[in-house]
Amino acid sequence: MHFSILLASLASILISICGAAPSVSLVSNTQLDANGVFFVSYDGVVNVNSFQLSGVLTYSGWQYAAWYTSTRYAILARRQLPSGAWSTLQLPHQLSTNDSHNVIALGVSPADGKIHVAMDCHSTQLYYTSSEANLATSGASWVASRFGSITTTLGNLNIGTVVTYPQFVVTPDNLLQFVYRSGVSGNGATQLAEYKSGSWANVGSWASASGTYTSTNGVTSTARNLYIHGFTYRANRVHITGTWREQAGGVSCSSGGLTNHDTTYFYSDDKGRTWKNSAGASIGTSGSSPVNVNTAGIIVDSLNADHGLMNQESQAVDSAGQIHAIISYVPGRFTQCVTNYESDRTSYARPFHVYRSSNGTFTKVEIPFAISSVGRSQIVMDNSDNAYVVLPYVRIVTASKSSGWADWTLAYDGQAQGLNAFGEVTVDRARVSSGVLSILYQLKSTGTTPSAVKVIDFNLNG
Ligand SMILES: *[C@@H]1O[C@H](CO)[C@@H](O)[C@H](O)[C@H]1NC(C)=O
Ligand SMILES: *[C@@H]1O[C@H](CO)[C@@H](O)[C@H](O)[C@H]1NC(C)=O
Questions:
Q1: CB of 354 within 8 A of CB of 328?
Q2: How far is the CA of 98 from the centre of ligand 2 (A)?
Q3: 74 ligand 2 Cβ < 6 A
Q4: Is residue 35 lining ligand 2, measured as CB closer than 6 Å?
Q5: pTM, two decimal places
Q6: What is the pLDDT of residues 241-291, one digit of tens each?
């Protein structure tokens, strides 16, 4: 063996013994639709938002994806994993308005194998449908007639006409839950409903608009909403991180900023009925006594409303049951007052990894890659608790658990690879435990010219 090759082999053996940031390897990149609907609103596109749970979803060996096509109809696709071809069906519903928040969310109720679809709302009524029983497991033909008619209720449950951010999650005992916001930005409540024995029931509000917040510049705000980074079960606990969005614009140093402040954490061990802070103190009961901005012991990273802190980024929980969130904002070394959150975030914002240790301490580490976008990032963790963060434009940065999540490395650069992704992406959280990261993205376009919707798959640390 040539001496330099020998040295290189020794080096790679040493790296694998001592640990290195995990890699990703491209498996496939498939096109769902050449002509997805395209328009930019709130800095985003409607088919791909960070807060979409779930725009792409794996269940029982099948993967589902949803988007609006250029005729504005909602399309559902399905493929058999690992490499089956996509089939599509068109639901009898068209996107009602050019608002990028009106995403499509998918869920499966394990007890009856129904596929649930919630969509097209932003402080408006919801549109909802669910499939015939066992469609998620039977492999029956993929046709729209297997779905019920579109309702503006959550099946049997009336959840009002001011609904936003529909998300489906599955509890440890296999019930489907529905998380959403009632009310509006700056004056809203997070809500929970649950699907059991074929019907939906309200659990109640678990974080409210009430309380008083006084900013560092002395302005008081009396209403807000909690924007969540996720609603994530691990074992019997559901973990929530989030940020408050104040109603009073004056809490920010500039009207061009964002009134988001602080990162909060709390959890529930009874599927969202009662809540505890990181120290284990009881802090709220859904319905009767929701968490609010004055709840004690929920801020785990303090930040005033002057830094363009983003809402609704992402979170994951590791195998030890510890929360990991990605937040992003403009660090103080660039400015102490964000005056235009869109341009300042694009120029200066950095992602931060905020995570809890088992002794209750939270650590925040700046990930040394700029966001270069207004938009949000996604974190997932593999079965060995390595971290993978998908930055806008499908740039994947990783850090190993063995380094204490300190060795952040660019593992895949979708920009350099010419993917031409719009920016923000959404990921298949249910597939990650099988060692594959599936990312739904849409191509950059201009005006209202449709563009392709794609799913790109990577093997994690393979
Ligand atoms: C908590 O654990 C972290 C990580 O192991 C450690 O860095 C920190 O010093 C600990 N804090 C306390 C108060 O023990
Ligand atoms: C909404 O987007 C469509 C393209 O999907 C475009 O044709 C239409 O003009 C847009 N409407 C408004 C009000 O911008």
A1: no
A2: 6
A3: no
A4: no
A5: 0.95
A6: 999 999 999 999 999 999 999 999 999 999 999 999 999 999 999 999 999
